[in-house]
């Protein structure tokens, strides 16, 4: 299915929760928000805002907490730095610095208390109003060559309700995610199996209890009905207000009340920056794909892996399964 940003009309706003403490990356995140950790040469959060802008959305609300001021600074203009680069004639770096502040109109609201993802989304109610909106989590980076968000917006416009992104994962890992039980859905112009109807959502189920291996990843296009549902959703797993629980309620509500949940099954390129190992993999994958860095970095990386093979006396394919 081909879509363009010009086709996007109903979804005009995006909410990005960035209030988390980033404890898995301590001590690096003691004074630096995890969203500002560099992925090659841009902070992770910039990739997310670039994705939003690429889908034709200009209005972005970030739900922040204490110690997140550098995120606001990053999307603001820096006149002193820009002037210094301009005097030097460093046009390439000047353009890179200005790019982050030109991507979108970025607004900020404080969550106040860390009550969970559902509560963070609810904090966007006044800004969003009574219209469908996107929610993007910063731990999942979607390759710019894969128009996941654009497709999700198109599905929401055509079917109504809410739409979640789903990814097939190793069944042994499903306990790390929200999990969806689904049934087929037929949408004209979209390949069979790419869109499904969600019957049930379970937050981090035990492996033996999981209804499928379809994991909910950090992209949502939500009906504004989610706000009233979240208001009456009590704490769930981990003692937090879970967005998954609200979506489970929406899945059972009639369409005329903003209910119904569909899933877009994503088969493209996703980079998980949620923990240290996956973060390192994301940096390597994105660097290898860069035209300016990829050839030299790939050559060095290949030599490094072969060198480790000689040093350790083992098959690199066994130590580095992704190299197969």
TrEMBL record:
InterPro entries: GalU_uridylyltTrfase_bac/arc, NTP_transferase_dom, Nucleotide-diphossugar_trans. It comes from the Bacteria. GO terms for molecular function: UTP:glucose-1-phosphate uridylyltransferase activity. Residues 13-285 form the Nucleotidyl transferase domain. It catalyses: alpha-D-glucose 1-phosphate + UTP + H(+) = UDP-alpha-D-glucose + diphosphate. Keywords: Nucleotidyltransferase, Transferase. Its EC number is 2.7.7.9. SUPFAM superfamilies: Nucleotide-diphospho-sugar transferases. PANTHER family: UTP--GLUCOSE-1-PHOSPHATE URIDYLYLTRANSFERASE. Belongs to the UDPGP type 2 family. NCBIfam families: galU (TIGR01099). This is UTP--glucose-1-phosphate uridylyltransferase. It comes from Georgenia faecalis. The lineage of its organism: Bacteria, Bacillati, Actinomycetota, Actinomycetes, Micrococcales. The gene is galU.
